[in-house]
Amino acid sequence: MSDAAGRDKWRPSLGLVIFAVLASVATLPLVGLFFFRLYDNQLIRQTQAELIAQSRVLAAVYAREVEARLDKGLVLGPELPPEARPDPEDRVTPIRPALDLASNDLLMRRPDAKPAPPANPLYTEIGARLMPIILETQKVTLAGFRILDPNGVVIAGRHEVGESLAHIEEIAAALKGQYHAALRIRKPDKTPPPIYSISRGVGVHVFSAMPVLVNNRVAGVIYTSRTPSNIFDHLYQERGKFILATLAVVLGTILIGLVFRRTITRPMRELVSRVDRIGRGDRDAFRPLAHYGTREFAQLSKSFFGMAEQLSRRSDYIATFSAHLTHELKSPLTSIKGAAELLLESLQGHTASLTRMEQKNFVSNILGDAERLETMTQRLRELARAEGAPQNESSELSSVVNALKSRYPTRAITASGCLDRLIGMSAEKALIVLTHLTDNAIRHNARHVRLEAANDDAAIRITISNDGDPISEANRDRIFDAFFTTRRDTGGTGMGLAIVRAIMASHGGSIRLKPTEQGAVFELQFPAA
Fold first, then answer.
1. Closest CA to 221 of 233, 232, 213, 229
2. Which of 59, 124, 283, 328 is such that its CA lies 20 to 30 A from the CA of 360?
3. How far is CA 185 from CA 35, 194, 256, 435, in A?
4. Contact 174/100 with Cβ under 8 angstroms?
């Protein structure tokens, strides 16, 4: 395996992931600054809508002034073609703002005015009458107003009166009877702060050219202009709210971080530390965590500690079992080896020949030890099967009891209670449990074995009692240990009760020895099917 393949793949830590998420949340308001241009566009259209409304009012007043002077020989501009004339039946003809900063329809600065011949005195008179209205309106709206005659000459306004603006694109369109607006680059009065570069709206000017129509002829143009509202000015005006919002985001981020640390990061680090300690063999690491944080993490931790503790007990059990098994196998193997060596030497004549009786005894010993090994192997297979996980097993208790009676037809076995119940164990394994208990009772001089079944909430309790030899007080705590037996000289393996306990435990049941003055009494808890 190469070094690159052998190295662990880099993965971010939980703390790094949480920090990245919190940092993203905290910077969202700053990222929002780059979306100011969308707001700029809305401010520009709002400015255009205001200019349209103001221009339309002035256009109506200007038209009335023109109509009042038509009989004095006032000359109107060119007549509109039929397709460009407004429909007299339309009661509502709104002009909707259409300027779009995002589409880059941004023109250069407005060209300067050009010299022009003097305007018609009647138009000059109209301009003089409207000038006070313009000045009063400018005080409130801060917009620039210019009124042009049909030739594009300024007849009213603060500047450029008497000069021509007919060469400007939006005015040229208005002199043909079409409303037109434009966005143009604005030269600020002073250098703006660098942060203003985020917003394009602070460097433009909105121009609106509204034609004045009288008798389907162009009588003039209302030319208005204004700088859109500045988003930074708005933020400055609302700086108190903006600061409170920023503090709320910062405090909210800190609060979320503390919650994450208490509910996820801290318990996770403690669990990782416990795993390292368990790996080093520290038995004190199985105790519960000081703080779990969340319900799911508590379930995960408890399940993990339960599994780790079970594996630890299993490891201890395997180590102890291996030591006992080695000891149990060593005696018969040593006996077999010694007897076989003596027989071989006798056959080869190296020593005095064994008598026929001695040879028989040695062979009998070999066969006896081989039979003991075979019995022990059979018990080990039963123990391995007993510790296997059950697979949706069930059986009727009465059938198991009948099979037990048929296995011991010469013995007095009686059963009573709820024998018609189903237990959560196969008939084969249940029969192994009852057989081992009955066989132990018989081998300890029992003449009568009694079984009594009773119903519990989620289990079936069976009490098995016999009238055989009682179990001494010194052995009561050891009878379920593997390889513990009081009749080793008669072929006992000490595996029977260990197999019974393993079968019961693997199916969620239990077995215990109850105190009694005569014989032995065992209580078994079978899971209900």
1. 213
2. 328
3. 21, 17, 45, 102
4. no
